[in-house]
Design a protein that fits this description.
- The chain is about 20% helix and about 30% strand.
- The protein has helices at about 85-90, 125-135, 155-160, 170-175, 180-185, 200-205, 250-260, 295-300; strands spanning about 10-20, 25-30, 45-50, 55-60, 70-75, 95-100, 115-120, 140-145, 165-170, 190-195, 215-220, 235, 240-245, 275-280, 285, 300-305, 310, 315.
- It is globular.
- Mean pLDDT is about 95; it is low at about 1-5.
- It starts with 7 loop residues before the first strand and ends with a strand.
- By secondary structure, the chain is an alpha/beta fold.
- The strands form four sheets. It has a six-stranded antiparallel beta sheet with strand order 4-3-6-1-2-5. The chain has a five-stranded parallel beta sheet with strand order 9-8-7-10-11, with helices on both faces.
- The chain has three domains: about 10-100, Beta Barrel (Elongation Factor Tu (Ef-tu), domain 3), CATH 2.40.30.10; about 115-220, Nucleotide-binding domain of ferredoxin-NADP reductase (FNR) module (Rossmann fold, 3-Layer(aba) Sandwich); about 235-315, Beta-grasp domain (Ubiquitin-like (UB roll)), CATH 3.10.20.
- The structure holds FE2/S2 (inorganic) cluster.
- FE2/S2 (inorganic) cluster binds near residues 266, 268 and 270.
- FE2/S2 (inorganic) cluster (FES) binds near residues 265, 266, 267, 272 and 288.
Length: about 325
């Protein structure tokens, strides 16, 4: 189950360091030096960048009383201003508004064994989980796939963990990592976690299709489904009693913002969970990449940036 919070922090960029090719680690501390809210394995934070863009990044470390947060940020060639801004303009000393950690990719800490799978920058939440499981003395293994050795982050620390970590370098192996073989070799009660590019996640979904869905966990960096822009329904805002019509071509979030409704948002494509709201009535057309099938069926929350409605009316707790 996901956790949400909308509280904001003012954090200073303490350091920016090199982790791998095109990948920086950005460390953020409270401006007043106070201890930060707990970060659990798999959590992420939203950075409100100084160019007005809000982006979510996964945390590298899980701590109950963190003195800083560290996020891994890869420069994306197709960046719309998030990672490019961080790599080219963000400087040590800058103060950013940052959300408290949210976790839509939580670890099951009672699993007998955890199989962690990462591709590229997807290593950030996965490495966070690996370190946490190691500290807990839990049973785990990590499979980390990169295109070239220069793309691999945290390699020195991983080497210290010995045989639990398996690094797969595509251009040395001449092929992509065999996810089916990794999953087939795991015990029936193992839990699986995967974060990486879309083709890897699609292959992971296929490879785990026969596993208990409760043991299969993943986090996407990009939307899988198109945003619902069909419109033609009414959203009732329960806290004010106001009704707003969602026309064709607009998302619920678009209309709420136009109407001056205060609502948090970040990715606007259903992957960060920032805009999650409670659903009181109606049949949601879920399009996000966060809620599990059972959470979708419960119909108790929705992401208003991307999801629509199958019913004529949705009542939201806004
Ligand atoms: S803004 Fe990211 S899920 Fe809606």
């Amino acid at each position: 189950m996901s956790t949400t919070t909308n509280n904001k922090l003012e954090l200073r960029v303490q350091s920016i360091s090199y982790a791998a090719q095109d990948t920086y680690l950005v460390e953020l501390c409270a401006v007043d030096g106070r201890v930060l809210p707990e970060a659990t394995p798999g959590a992420h934070i939203d950075l409100h960048l100084l160019n007005g863009i809000i982006r979510s990044y996964s945390l590298v470390r899980a701590e109950t009383q963190p003195h800083s947060y560290v996020v891994g940020i890869k420069k994306d060639a197709a960046s719309r201003g998030g990672s490019r801004y961080v790599h080219e303009e963000l400087r040590v000393g800058a103060v950013l508004t940052v959300s408290e950690p949210r976790n839509h990719f939580p670890l099951n800490t009672s699993a007998q064994h955890s199989v962690l799978i990462a591709g590229g920058i997807g290593i950030t939440p996965i490495w966070c989980m690996a370190q946490f499981l190691e500290q807990q003395g839990a049973s785990w293994e990590l499979w980390y796939s990169v295109r070239t050795r220069a793309d691999a982050a945290f390699v020195k620390q991983m080497e210290a963990l010995g045989g639990k970590v398996h690094l797969h370098v595509d251009d040395e192996a001449g092929q992509v990592m065999n996810l089916q073989a990794i999953i087939d070799a795991a015990a029936p009660d193992a839990h699986f976690y995967c974060c990486g590019p879309a083709p890897m996640l699609d292959a992971y979904e296929q490879a785990t299709a026969q596993r208990n869905p409760e043991t299969v966990h993943m986090e996407r960096f990009a939307a899988k489904e198109a945003i619902a822009l069909e419109g033609g329904f009414v959203v009732s805002l329960a806290r004010t009693g106001k009704d707003v019509v969602i026309p064709e071509g607009s998302s619920i979030l678009d209309v709420l913002l136009d109407q001056g409704v205060a609502i948090d948002y970040s990715c606007q494509e259903g992957i960060c969970g920032c805009c999650e709201v409670t659903v009181l009535e109606g049949d949601v057309d879920h399009r996000d990449a966060i809620l599990s099938e059972s959470e979708r069926a419960q119909n108790s929350t929705m992401m208003v940036c991307c999801s629509g409605s199958r019913s004529q009316r949705l009542v939201l707790d806004i």
